[in-house]
Write a structure and sequence with these properties.
The protein is of the alpha/beta class. The chain is built from ten helices and ten strands. Helix 2 packs across helix 3. The two termini are 28 Å apart.
Length: 258
């Protein structure tokens, strides 16, 4: 199985790391092309394009200018340790032993507006470029057109070794849209996480994000290899709900935040 998650806006390049193992990102040429487009824009244009404050726009313009095709320990950090949002708080990869990080490397893909797909241990230079950004390039008017079927073809290659390939979608709608479903070969199973709200249940964004990370953490500690095994996920009060689920949509609920 391959697990898909979204990146995070927040980054952490300050916390000391105890992990040296790393790999090089796969789509450097594509990232370089996007950086070239971004470098042509002023801070004001970046602020407007990405709906950023002036300080954030200035920070990211500086990041684009500093970005280079040579990834090193001084300008990069392993992707799963650099992202710092709700998903990554649930995953808590910094506390995983190296054997678990290697399992993640073999089973987890991080979708990215700039890098396309990042493996957990791929070195990543800091950036801000959400997949939904309407950045015009010579391939189209937005990043979905820029990436086309490249991400799906890569996932097909990764899954080809499995007899019954499955992609576990834990990414947001914005990012999963970058996977061309017509080109994608593996079966897709999506996980949904709901909270008790009055007499019913509801997806609450930041809680669902954390739960996606928790699911990946559960999968790595249990070495999950089949979608059916994920039904055992029980971290922080979540339980699988068969009556609300379908074969390709697994629903997990909890009564109250733990």
């Amino acid at each position: 199985m391959l697990f898909l998650i979204s990146p995070a806006k927040a980054l952490d390049y300050e916390t000391p790391l105890g992990v040296d193992t790393h790999t090089q990102p796969l789509f450097v040429d594509e990232a370089k092309a996007l950086i070239g487009v971004l470098r042509e824009k002023s801070p004001q244009e970046i602020a407007s394009l990405m709906d950023l404050s002036d300080p954030l726009a200035g920070l990211n313009v500086a990041r684009y200018q500093a970005w280079q095709t040579r990834f090193t320990a001084s300008n990069s950090r392993q992707a799963v340790l650099a992202f710092d949002g709700d998903v990554y708080g649930g995953l808590d990869a910094r506390q995983l032993p190296e054997a678990d990080l290697q399992w993640l490397q073999d089973h987890l893909c991080i979708l990215s507006g700039l890098y396309g797909v990042l493996r957990p241990l791929d070195w990543m230079q800091p950036y801000r470029l959400e997949m939904g950004t309407r950045l015009k390039t010579d391939r189209g008017n937005n990043l979905y057109q820029f990436w086309g079927d490249r991400i799906a073809r890569y996932l097909n290659e990764r899954a080809a070794a499995d007899r019954t390939p499955v992609v576990i979608n834990l990414a947001s709608e914005e990012y999963f849209k970058a996977v061309d479903r017509k080109a994608l070969v593996p079966r897709v199973v999506t996980c949904a996480f709901e909270e008790r709200k009055g007499d019913g249940y509801k997806v609450i964004s930041f809680m669902a994000k954390r739960a996606r990370g928790l699911m990946v953490r559960w999968a790595v500690t249990h070495r999950a290899s089949q979608p059916e095994q994920l039904q055992g996920f029980d971290l922080e009060g979540y339980r699988f709900v068969p009556a609300a689920s379908e074969p390709d949509r697994l629903v997990f609920r909890r009564e109250a935040k733990v």
